[in-house]
Amino acid sequence: MTSVPEIFAANVFNDDVMRDKLPKDVYKTLCKTIEDGADLDKSVANVVAGAMKDWAVEQGATHFTHWFQPLTGITAEKHDSFISPTSSCHVIMEFSGKELIKGETDASSFPSGGLRATFEARGYTAWDPTSYAFVKDGSLYIPTVFCSYGGEALDKKTPLLHSMEVVSDQAIRILRLFGNTSAKRVIPSAGAEQEYFIVDKDTFSKREDLIFCGRTLFGANPPKGQEMDDHYFGTIKPRIAAFMKELDEELWKLGVLSKTKHNEAAPAQHELAPIYTSANIATDHNQLIMEIMRKVADKHGLVALLHEKPFAGVNGSGKHNNWSLGTDKGENLLNPGKTPHDNAQFLLFLVAVIKAVDEYQDLLRISVASAGNDHRLGAGEAPPAIVSMFIGDELEAILAAIENGENYLAAQKQRMETGVHVLPTFTKDTTDRNRTSPFAFTGNKFEFRMLGSSQSISDPNVVLNTIVAEELRQFADELEGAADFNKALNELLKREVKNHKRIIYNGNCYSDEWKAEAARRGLHNYATTVEALPHFVDEENVKLFTSHKVFCEAEMHSRLEILLETYSKTINIEARTFVDMMKKQIIPAICEYSSHLAKDIAVKKKVGDFIDATPETELLTKISNLNKELFEKGKVLEYNVKNVPTDLDELGKALYFRKDIFEIMQEMRVIIDEIEPHIPKTIWPVPTYSDLLFF
Ligand code: ADP
Ligand code: MG
Questions:
Q1: Ligand 2 mean position, distance from CA 193 (Å)
Q2: How far is the CA of 457 from the centre of ligand 1 (A)?
Q3: How far, rounded to the nearest angstrom, does the alpha carbon of residue 469 sit from its chain's CA centroid?
């Protein structure tokens, strides 16, 4: 077997390959483009394209594709072959700089939220040289952005790249204030821990709800769930281990730094975590992780479920977005450091994040809102829908000392106000972890834990980068003009800690006590997607994104439309699947068993009164009553699905789908789950939770 270092990034046109394959001057120009965003002229682009094509052909590629991330949240690709005829019977393999840099595609089938008039079907893709091209399934994949004819972004990559630039510019201003003259850029980093379920493909194929919705719409709890805590970090079964091994290898070939794998809390649940990288590459890589995971599972006769809540009663799946800021020289700005001076800089960045999370709680909440994630947030397993921060006891004590103008350590002789250079030294968060916090400081980075397992990590990172950029901008404006930097810094820290400490909570975020306390503190609690989403276009949020040019106002409205529309469509598919399964499978099965029971009772009665038919009679009564209730609710559900009011806007529609469809489905599932344990396995028409989770 080839060694891991040998296979790692074997299919990636990365820096090593570029240096090797490109003429020196071309390589240098390209690096300048990658690092500073300088324009690439046509002749250079042609040389790069030629080298890329030759390399890709060596790897067995015959096609190339611009690879982009439309607002569906998944990736899109359209393949063109490299062939170019030289005569009627000959072709050569060709790829020009123009084809590398720009692609034209029919955008009309991708969601645009009203940005693209129907007569303007054109969309453009443009090369993102900051994320490496790679070869997969016989094609050269070129990461690109995707925009409309009018230049509006129609994808998840464009705003991410903008937000990364914006936070870099503002962070550099802060670094200059601390005397750092060497850093040229600051790069937001991300490491996304991915949770998922694995089920057997044959079993999966017997459930329409899993096929169409990615989750079970009903299913009674198996006799055993996750209460024994025997799955978390448990030994990995051979069939799963074989899948994981191949998954790692495929990811490594694509340069994805897959690092950790383990069993998660729920039965059949697992996690994969890569080593962090730039937010842009991490976003691309997370898309690859989800895609390759599905493909490799399929090869092994398995299915990878990426839905946030495939099964009720056991944990759902999330994604932890670990995030930090680092300079191009490798300094992690959220590392507390060893000296007081570093600590002052660290504290300023820390306070910027605290202020950002407090002021833009709603945007963070919105960035993770989806129909699937509604099943997790606030359901007592994942973080609640309330955004708060955990920073650990030590940092909290330091911030309290700053706020009160006191010394942090008793040993510390001087007082804080005399200047930042007397700030105490501390190394890192020394307290225990808080698993319940939605946004936790974990030593040298923040871990945002509210993301749903199936979502792109782009949106949360766009929000994080932009909100932190805004706070850093305010801080830089204030401090750059200060006559006495140290004094101004102390005042600023003190003021902002006081103003925003309400967002910090180190207790149990799953508790009802916290809900009440958060309400007292005036924190938002948007329990559902439909409650959260409309706030995306609140005045302060529009001001934030437009002032930093991450989105224009029209783009924000279009994104909101798409999010609402996606919500309604998701519930619509679930409801139609529900009605279908109910009519064709569940009710017939219940009727079948009822009729068995009725026949048994009749037979017994015929034999004589001395034979007791009480068990059958009680069972029949119970099942028939529940079935009637189910049937009546089913009629309402079916009616509501067929008669969606046509005069509603997207928000009205989403609210309708939540209230008049989703909530009825939830009530119906409770009834089905109550009936299921009474029906013999030979009659129950679909695989049960036991079959799925403990195969
Ligand atoms: P846990 O499960 O305890 O949260 P893991 O080790 O599974 O921890 O995951 C931690 C994640 O955080 C990894 O993906 C890691 O690469 C990432 N990470 C570490 N440092 C940084 C950083 N500076 N910026 C972004 N992500 C980071
Ligand atoms: Mg984690």
A1: 6
A2: 14
A3: 21
Q: What per-residue confidence (pLDDT) applies to 413?
A: 37
What's the whole-model pTM score?
A: 0.95
Angle made by CA atoms 674, 677, 679, in degrees to the nearest 5: 110
Q: Tell me the mean pLDDT per 10 residues along the chain, length 695.
A: 90 96 95 84 93 97 96 93 94 95 87 73 90 97 92 94 98 96 97 97 98 98 80 86 96 96 90 97 98 98 98 94 97 84 88 98 98 88 90 89 76 41 54 82 95 98 98 98 94 96 93 94 96 98 98 96 97 98 97 97 91 94 97 98 96 98 97 97 97 89
Which residues is 274 bridged to in the sheet?
A: 258
Residue nearest to atom 17 of ligand 1 (CA): 191
Which atom of ligand 1 is least distant from the CA of 335?
A: 23
Ligand nearest to the CA of 428: 1
393, 431 Cβ separation under 8 angstroms: yes
Q: To which residue do tokens 């009564």 refer?
A: 621
The structure tokens listed for 303 are: 């299915």
Residue type, 77: E
118: burial class by Cβ within 10 Å (0-12, 13-18, 19+)?
A: exposed
Which residue is listed with tokens 């330091």? 398
Residue nearest to atom 11 of ligand 1 (CA): 191
Ligand 1 atom nearest residue 334's Cα: 23
Joined tokens for residue 455: 């979502």
Give the span between the Cα atoms of 90 and 542, in whole angstroms.
Answer: 56
Q: Residues enclosing ligand 1, CB less than 6 A?
A: 189-191, 193, 260, 273-276, 320, 322-324, 332, 444-445, 447
State whether the Cα torsion 8-13-15-17 is positive or negative: positive
Nearest to 43 by CA among 103, 98, 124: 98
Let me know: does 124 contact 149? Beta carbons within 8 Å: yes
- 618 CB neighbour count, 10 Å cutoff: 11
**Beta strands in 275-347, from DSSP E residues, in sequence order:** 277-278, 302-305, 318-327
317 CA distance to ligand 2 middle (Å): 12
